[in-house]
Amino acid sequence: MKLTTKGRYAVTAMLDLAIHENGGPIALADIAHRQGISLSYLEQLFSRLRKHKLVNSVRGPGGGYSLGHPPARIFIADVIAAVDEKVDTTRCGGKHNCQGSLPCLTHELWHDLGQRIEEYLSRISLQSLMEREAVMSIAARQDGLGDVDPVPERQADRS
């Protein structure tokens, strides 16, 4: 399967943003620090996420990024697509030329698997990830807080 760091980092950063944005815009430097992702790499990713209206930016002191929609309406497949990633499990990148100029014997198997992964990621929202106790426990550890309530109150979800 070809899901590069670009897609994984974009999802990780968006989930971090969803978890932490209660207090207003979040600086990319804070996400970079918590997640161990290069700030310059995050800037590139967030430029693409902003173009797809998945995030909003606020300039100036106290500025940063916030989600462009409530986390229940942002799906993992959309985040991956926004950073020009494609979940592809075929050897040929979906070009049907894995064996010379023709599909290989297992091309349809890998193509079907890729479609199932895409369907799965299209059903998983940032909100659904935030409702997972393990996710919130890891976020609390990263914040140095220990355990926290697995489903934080969110102002944006009420809209």
Walkthrough of the structure:
- The radius of gyration is 18 Å and the shape is elongated.
- Helix 1 packs across helix 2.
- It has 159 residues and is mainly alpha-helical.
- The N and C termini lie far apart (36 Å).
- It has a single domain, classed as Orthogonal Bundle (Arc Repressor Mutant, subunit A).
- The chain contains seven helices and two strands; from the N terminus they run H-H-H-E-E-H-H-H-H.
- 48% of the residues lie in helices and 5% in strands.
- A two-stranded antiparallel ribbon has the order 1-2.
User: In the CATH hierarchy, what is the class?
Assistant: Mainly Alpha
Q: How much β-strand is present in the residues?
A: 5-15%
Rounded average pLDDT: 87
Largest sheet: 2 strands, antiparallel
Assigned CATH superfamily: Winged helix-like DNA-binding domain superfamily/Winged helix DNA-binding domain
Rounded to an integer, what's the Rg over CA atoms?
18 Å
Total strands: 2
* pLDDT < 50 runs, ≥5 residues: 147-159
Intertermini distance: 36 Å
Going by CATH, the architecture would be Orthogonal Bundle
Fraction of residues in helices? 40-55%
Any idea of the CATH topology?
Arc Repressor Mutant, subunit A
SS field, number of helical segments: 7
Count of discrete domains: 1
* Alpha-beta classification: mainly alpha
Helix and strand succession? HHHEEHHHH
What best-fitting shape do the alpha-carbon axes yield?
Answer: elongated
Name the strands of the widest sheet in spatial order. 1-2
